User: Fold these one by one.
Assistant:
Number 1:
Amino acid sequence: MKKRYPKYLSLAMGIMLSLLLCMHVRAQESPNENKSVVFLLDVSGSMQSNDPERLAVDSIAQLIYSLPTNYKVGLTVYSTEAAVLQKEADNGHRSDIMDLAGKIEYQGYSNAGAGLLSAVETLTETSAGEKYIVMLSDGEILMKEDALTQESEQLCRDAIAYAEEQGIIIHVIGLGEDMEDEANLIYDAAALTGGRSCHASQASGLQSAVDLILAEMGVKQSTVAIVDADGGTERVVVELPYLQADKIRVLLTSSAPIHNLNTAFQAENARQVNGAGYSLLEIERPSDGHLEISFEGTAGSQVRINAIPEYSVLPKVEIVYEDRLSGEMDNPCYERTAKLLYTFCSKEKQSISLWEGEYFDSSKIILWINGEAEELTLSKGALEMQESVTASGAYEVAFDYSAFPANVIGEESITVKLEEPPVIDVEEPEQVKFPIGIAAATLLLLIAAAVLIFYLRRPKSAPAPVEERPQPSKYPYVGKMNLYITRTSSGYDIEPLSYNLFRLPAGKVISLQEILEECEVKESFPGAKHIFFKPGTGRSVIMTNNSDCTIMKSREILMKNKSYQLNVDAKVDISFEDEVSELTLQYKVLKPSEMWQ
């Protein structure tokens, strides 16, 4: 239960109003910026005891400085009343938001309903394609009077419904003992909008919660060093593999102040931002990956150094045709194969080719063609595929970089235009009588042409088969698989089963056969060992079917040697290769209480 602080009410309102008056920067709209995030912070009086070192402010810094450039960020706070301190601002104004956050004081009651409604209304004014709210609270809704508390609770429910209607995803970070209760109304904001709920018992655990939220939003970051500070000068040397990146953000976070940050690197430009418990180095287009960092940390504290790479990308396609003669002698034609080579260059400097280094080899990029996913492997900066061409046409290819080890901004689709094979013109011969010698020579030529056509029509050797098991992904599992075995070859009934994917290592690929064996199922399911699962982006699971089983999803037959994305509550029916055994599986997301059972 939150404590009451009525004597601080007027002071809290005065501080909020002064903050609103001192900050009025509004970022200009840009067609390239299509995502918005509002950080909603509980600044009520109880936060003084739950966050005495003001680590919530550092969590704001970690969040906004980790987001790629195409995210606009805003800040809303609430105690007795709600205040929008900053509407969505672009990358150049993020330090201004942190200046505002540093002036916040924890005072007053907890009017979460008004705060959430303000954040939702702010996002409805934007045209962003993706909209998020990250809400941090340390307790239940509580006002001076019961009637006001009930009014705020109703506002909270209305705001959640409004967010759900507008497609706004709300992530909730609960802080302290009061937020251990999963039935807390504030957690409904995440459950009903498809967001993530995290709980930190102490403020020192906020960093892990923010990491989970960033991963849920698809932000790619890597920890390059963790330093236990002794109060002296610390030196760190790293080799970053993100050559020609538009930006690399190097973020240092700590539970204690960081002083005298110095760096050495080669790049076109850079800027540095320092806060109480964090420092940011934003590097533009580094020419090499060598980075040297020195700083003074507070003795006994731990400093984490994260790298957040960002590429602004323009995809290109090069098409090479291969034609071979085919058909009957009296009606020859060309069979055409198109070899498509997809490459990627910097959107700002199109002469710069990207991802040609060894670090990016074997990275996965998904191409969506006519509604079907085709997962290709990057090699020396290019994706390669082939297809037969019978007629001229054009189609759109969309790129999904969710499995790529860096944040990618830019064109997400490209038009592929294919040309039909050339036509062979056959002239009708004149009806003339040939001398015997000419007839014999003509016959020899026809025989030679037939031999040539025979050799041209010989089938080429098939390429060596690729490894059946898919490559691991870069995401963690967040859910479970419910299995309903409806028919077996022996005729025995098997009770419904549940397999906890959350306990698997991040990115691991597992077959359906392995899941059944882990569930101690003794029956045989032919083809199950050729059906694979791995974690995908946005809490999804990627299913790859390399079997001859009949697999149905939403009345659609899933093709062999194809990968499909299973979102939350997706249901799949499988008839196995023996044409007897049948199974239904459903992918579900775990509740927080189920994760460690």
Number 2:
Amino acid sequence: MRKENSVFRTKFISEPGCYIKNQDYFAFVELEDYACYCIADGIDEDLNRESAKLAVTSVITAFHENPGCSKRLAKHYMQEAHNELHRESKEARLEVSMVILLTDYKKALWISAGNTRLFGIRHGNIKWKTKDTSLSQGMADKGDIPLDQIESHEERHNLYCYLGQSGRFQPVTYKKRKLEDGDIFVLYTRGVWESVGDAELLDAIEGASDPESVCTGLEEVILSSQQDIVENYTIVSIFIDKIYRNPRAGKQKKYMKIAMAVFGIVFVLLLTWGVVRYNQNKSNLETMNKSLANAVDYMEEDSYETAIEEFKKAYTASEKVKLRKSSKKYKKIELVDLYYKMSLNLEEARTAFQEGEYKKSYNKYGAVVEKIEALKKQEEKITFGADIEMLEKYAYEMQQAETAMEEKNYKVAAKGYGEAASLADSIDATTEKNTAEEKAKNANGSLAVKNGDESKAEGEAKMKEGEYQKALNSFQTARNFYTSAKDDYGNQEAADRITELDIRIEDANNKVEKQTAEELENEAEKYEQAAADALANGDYDTAQENYDMAKKLYKQTGNTDMMAQMDTKASETESGPASEASEKALAALLSAAEYLARADYGHALANFDDARKYYEEAGMTSESNRVNNIITQMSGMISG
């Protein structure tokens, strides 16, 4: 009935531009009492699934099943399309930008998500237009950039709401508008508005007698813009020549006026100060409760910035509520105040973290944890507390690591950053994890450079003492450290050191090669004496090392007798007190294993400690360190 007594004319153009496939899609249906127009732009990279067509088809199907023109139904249609994209996102996520226009031939409303746009034109002027759900639009709304720069701004395609997204989906709905004869609606995708501004749109409409002229006029603007790449573009033009008018509207208006007059009198009589106050309190309470619930939901989703904004809204509403402190509802206001203070601490903690002030961040996260504990005592069900506690520990590890870096204790710093990265990974805090891993990489690089510098210094000392073989060994060790710093950790400082060190290695090699047999024998005797001195001091590892060095030098001179003597002395060193101590260590380890098998952890720890001491006595540092690591791990397990 309504369609027959109204005139709506619709035309559209949809082209792929420079691409093989067109990712845009448009469809509409005009039923007896309602009409639906739906335009979509596929913004994913799956060229096989036609996500825009899938989403539009879902909207049209939902409209057929339950036609209407209301905000509730508009949200329902778009939600159905959003759900369908999720169901079909098997190999890759399907994503779509969309606008839906609904009308009952007298009024119209629309809903949007993404940066597909709708314009309503009346009397040659743009009366209504949608807003993009993009970062650029948000910046323009805040006044950070001019409105006319959105079309060219670098963040214009950075969307925070679109069909197929993960998390909370909240499209933008617009209130219902009364239509007039001569109104025009134009809908188009990003391939159009990046080339067509408001002025070009009005020029195309001026003097146009039919919707097809508008579409072709806008297409000419796109094709004449001389872009290197023409994106997919879809243009829809809807001319409303005549809206539906109810033939009984005159009588209804008369009855409505009488009813309104009576209602007005009654309303004035009932409008007392108490009613106004009650309604205001009710509205503020509802706003407070809704914002608080939203804030808690956002906290559970780790959307901390949005949660903080919602806590602020809840607190602002709570300040306007007038209640007796003895009332039950007043307790909710106290809870809002506590949540709000917690959100302020959280905001400070995150700001401090972003600015690299980890000590302050740690303290503020600690304050958040305290507020959470206070909320739990008020019987609030807090599910996000564990993540906040993890962030508190993360900030602590980062602060400790930063202090170690300042003190050039790179080993401790690298360990701290690694611990922080593991904590962030456990709660999927990607930004925090990446920051910690990058800092750990830098710390490890600095540690490798430091170790290289120390080995190089040892080599220089040995060169001055004429111990060229030892110098060569130290230089080669230093080079290994520098190479690791450069290749494994990206430390560019190490590259220059390698170049310089290669010269010293070549020099040491030349010194070794040029030594005469007599010089080699003299140097070998020095090592032999050094070994004897170390042996006298109970330093068996150093003695062993010097005997080996002496043997290498005797080998270069061909002195097989002295080589044999060095082997004998080295063997005697191995079978000395160090060997006896290592046997005791092995016996202690076997005893520890037996106690572990019986779950007697106390005696097991005691035997591990005995083994560590025996290895230290034997000068077997690496074995002592390994046993010490076992003791540390077991102690942590027992205390945990």
Number 3:
Amino acid sequence: MGRRGFSVTSAETVPAASGIAADAPAPARRSWAPAAICACYLAAALVLTWRLWAHPASATVAGNPPDVSQFAWFMRYEAIAIAHGRLPALVTTAMNAPRGISMMWNTTALLPGVLLTPVTLLAGPQVSLNVLLTLGFAGSSATMFYVLRRYGASLAAAAVGGAVYGFSPALTHAAMGHFQLQFAVLPPLIVDAVLRLSLGPRRPLLTGAWLGVLVAAQVFIGEEMLFEAALAALLVVVVLAVSRPRAALGRAVSVAMGLGAAVVVGLALTGWALWTQLHGPLTQHGTAFYLDFYKNDLAGFITPDAFQLIHTSSSAATAARYAGLAPEYVAYLGIPLIVVLVVASVLFWRHLPVRACAVATLVLLLLSLGAHPLVSVTANPLTQRPGGITLPWGWIEQLPVVSAGLPNRLSIVADGTAAAILAYAIDLAFGRLRRTSLGRGKAAAIVAVVAAAAIVPLIPRPLPATPAVALPAGWDTTLTALRLPVGARLLIVPVPTAILDDGLRWQADGGQRVSLIGGYFEGPASNGKAYIDGPGFPELTWYLDYLWLGKAWTGPPPPEPGQKAVVATLRYWRPQAVVADAASRPALERYLTGIFGNPAIRYGSMIGWRT
């Protein structure tokens, strides 16, 4: 037994990987190696994002422009608040005036936005987003490396495990506009803090307080990842407790003390925000997405798409037909890694860290399949018949908190537990092989070749970049000439919506302190149910956007709203100014002139009215 009655090395003794320590990590040798490894992570992150850094103020990851524009707006909103000496309001009419939005019910990444305020003010929101992406890859790798080292993995094995997690297909795909998911730096630390509590630290109150700080920080990055990290930690702790029940019972008091401290600290830091979210204006329930739509398929675990360095045209074409689209194609692990994980879990099952991570990985991936299995990676979950098979996610998907998450995204934390299995397997296999006639050198070579075969298929290609929506000619001049007061309601044409993000991006890049009519957000309908765009927009919104898009409009044209509908909409919106990108759009200009009269201002492609 270990010094606290809890041993994790019941079947294996591995140099530099002796198992889970009960509290603090073993004293580290003074060495430059960990810093060099973290520097390599940063270098790899820069290689992965180099196309963005070639044009940092205007280049975005291709594949999901509306979400990127939405995050750019959030970054600008948060920076404006900090620049004027206040925290960002959690309920604001800066978007979707006059009703407003709840920042807590949207993927606002409040903490990163606040911390990156200097970058946003000096270089613009897109540079801040590119910084966030780069730090997300490097930081996620570094925290996983740190946690693996804490629990006994050797330097080389921990370095591999950190890279597998930080540059996993799940995170490289989340880079397409899902910044709150891609910045997965804290989940390994949250799991670590929970484990330290469960293993009986010397100072449970201090450990619990640290857990509370981490939880609070993750709340202000993205609550969905907090749920996933908590689920992963719970699964690992349950396996540990079942494996060593006496030791677990002996630590019940210290665990309770630590959890109490975590709750106190966490609520002290987030209570005001959570109260606003759950009991303030614009509260909502459920998910804004189709239930059981965004989920993994078994074929997705072995079918690489064009984001992976190693893929075929056939596999990329198959993956491209995934109904959830590329940003949600997060399942891929590759056949070699899956084989290694299965073999390692069987061979080293008696090694408690491997057993705990294997169970957690299996459960997380099973839950990621959703309530009903997809018949193929190209199947449409809305049209296929479930076939009477209900998977475990179907038992919990209607629960409060759980219902707001998407099951496929559990792949992110599952990739973390899988990375831990791989790291421990590297050490355990090396320790076993070197005790044979092979010797140290050949054992190291065999392990290195197998590990390389497992992780090479995961190597991503540099992220594809595309130019962000550019400011139209005359935007800044027009807004300056209008001389709008702070917070003035502004109607931009095209009206910002979830499918037409241009106006949202213009305001984010321009930095004007106005309240936008329209926007892209989650909000409650009249019954409190969550929807994209909340209760929806008036029909005038869609007609104006139709006139702006012209031939680019897809689907049947919306009907022209009658005069009463236009008057009612304008009375509701009460815009203090209207600006439109009307260059080469005579139908749009005629329509707006018919409502507001001749434009008061005309610069470049912009026309504007004071109303």
Number 4:
Amino acid sequence: MPLNEIVLDMDKVKITRLKTDVLIVGGGAAGCFAASELKLNAPNCDCIVMEKAHIDRSGCLAMGINAINAYLNPGETPDSFVAYIKNEFMGVVREDLLYSIAEGLNSVVHEVEGWGLPIEKDRNGYYKMRGKRSIRIHGERLKPILAERAKRSGAKILNRVVATNFIFDGERVSGAYGFGIRDMTFYVIEAKAVLVATGGASRIYKPNNEGSARNLMWYSPWNVGTGYAMGTRIGAEMTCFENRFVALRVKDVNAPTGTLALGVGAKQINAIGESYLSERYECFGGRKCVTPYRLYATILEDKAGRGPCYLDISHLSDRERRKLKEDFLSMNPSIVLLWADEGLDKKLSCVEICGTEPFIEGGHSEAGYWVDVDRRTTIKGLYAAGDITGGSPKKYASGAWVEARISIKTILADINLNGKIRAVDESDIQNELQRITAPFYNHNQNSVTAREMEERLQKVMDEYAGGISTNYELNDKRLRLARDLLNELLGHLEFLRAENSYELVGCLEIIDRIEVAQVLVEHLFHRRETRWPCYQTRIDFPDRDDRFWLKYVNSVRDTSSGKIKIIKRNLQ
């Protein structure tokens, strides 16, 4: 039966209580690696992986990747890796987290290669480099490889179970709740430690395209910030949400520009054929043209009437074009199919590029949980790994594996495998069940669907919190309007309605996204400078200001009032 035809009959909802030593929330790159790492180091330690989709093809790696973008090739060191990312993010990074990632990158890549990941090699057996910190792979089946390893580890896998909240007594996390989409089971999973690895947040902003094409440009549309929302609801400290990520992509298809720029040396050109990065924007105030500026320069060219902009591939030979198509097929075939359909695969000389809507994540940028170097969050019993952790950008898939390894080592050192698991109160169970199923009872003229609420959220964020329609630009007045409108939306959540379990999940997702958006707007409002153009462009504070803002903007949501408190922390 199709998922959207599963009717939610409340009489059939059953409660299942499970106990485990370690609960991993999220079965993506970090979650699968963590399950394998845990069982490898502690075979007798019970482990459950709770995954919203199916671990075989879930998360950001679902369709594959064509490169490992965090790897130390010969000549690179942990120190040079940290220095590179510190420069890219204008000084505001967690150097301690980045260094711990850099130390483990190569070993985790070698381990995953041993699991079956095909890595391209030259005739001498050395990895083929795509850049100083990148190697080429055939990664279409990377996620199934990780999933198979997690399953073979002996961890219990709960597929198609949506995490809804942590089990929290005011001091410690001791598990999580989940809702089974297919079997309508409400899970109460009690654990000695919880690792959150749910990834970042998409679908908060209005996307480039509408309708069936609305989620085609970048990032998994099913990663909606649930892990963030669950953490903020219990008062976990978050960091760097204002450092949004806006991807520079091939227009209208899910195709990375890095495959063109790094892979085949394609230069960015404008509509009149100028290589504008080198001619106009090679240095912004004496700074090398780092990642955010490549997009910023593209926006400026378009505003000046010299757009649209492109990546120039006119120099490629037929052999190089064939190799380029192979690289895209390892990650996403849509661009290759588009070229073939339009008869452009042999005669195409340039590829149009544009920015996506903003995303909130900690793999490419640095939004996420504030953690210590051992990946403990500020809440006892709760640990984090992967895109959900903050302050350590450009870690990508391999960095997520390193964080998974670090967090598992910490968990095994922290927990008592022979100790008892703290039982959750029955009243708490009933309260959470009533909260998540409330949309099923709203069938009056005032009720709204999750899709209708999503459209409103995305319009608010696009127009007032720096979306595509405003060239990602922000100012005080717009952000204040965004804050007020989000508060209104939060008050309307009681009118959400659902006809079946699929729509119920949509309701839970929009609740989480609105709460994440609230935290984001507060971060954007309080960083009164422009440090990362396009990621965070304050037109009322256009200059970078190291005197006052070479620091982290963190936040904690008050668990009683719901108000968000901003905390400014000095660099570590």
